[in-house]
Amino acid sequence: MASIEDIVARMRRNPSGLRFGELVKVCEYFMGPARQCGSSHLVFKTPWQGDPRINIQSSKGKAKPYQVRQVLLAIERLEAKRDESS
Questions:
Q1: What pLDDT sits at residue 10?
Q2: SS3 47
Q3: Would you say 52 and 46 are in contact if contact means Cβ atoms under 8 Å apart?
Q4: 34 by DSSP, 3-state: which?
Q5: 15: which residues sit within 8 A by CB, 6+ positions away?
Q6: Under a CB-based contact definition with an 8 Å cutoff, are residues 67 and 18 in contact?
Q7: What ranges in the chain are assigned the alpha helix state H?
Q8: Lower Cβ count inside 10 Å, N or C end of the chain?
């Protein structure tokens, strides 16, 4: 199975070619377990004010490209926040 770094690199290269399970794996790595998972949507909480969630859903086993881009933005923001605190 691919590592988180490999999946994120593929997400950056091609947001439309990602499997939903890989997106879930990345979200759980960076944001912890989904706080809502009883429906077709998985909702992940983020630590900042404003829109504090990432909402993803499967589209025939694939991740939706706009949701992949949202997750990438959240990852960049989390990494920037981590760099500030170091």
A1: 95
A2: coil
A3: yes
A4: coil
A5: 63, 65, 66, 68, 69, 72
A6: no
A7: 4-13, 20-31, 65-85
A8: C
What's the confidence (pLDDT) of residue 2? 79
How many residues in total does the chain contain? 86
Question: Which residue stretches of the chain have pLDDT < 70?
Answer: 1, 52, 86
Torsion sign over Cα 4, 21, 15, 28: negative
Query: pLDDT at position 1, please?
Result: 60
> Distance between CA 26 and CA 21 in Å, rounded?
9
| Residues 6+ away with beta carbon under 8 Å from 41 | 55, 56, 57
Tokens (6 digits) for 37:
């998972």
What letter represents residue 75's amino acid? I
Q: Which amino acid is at 81?
A: K
pLDDT value, residue 11: 95
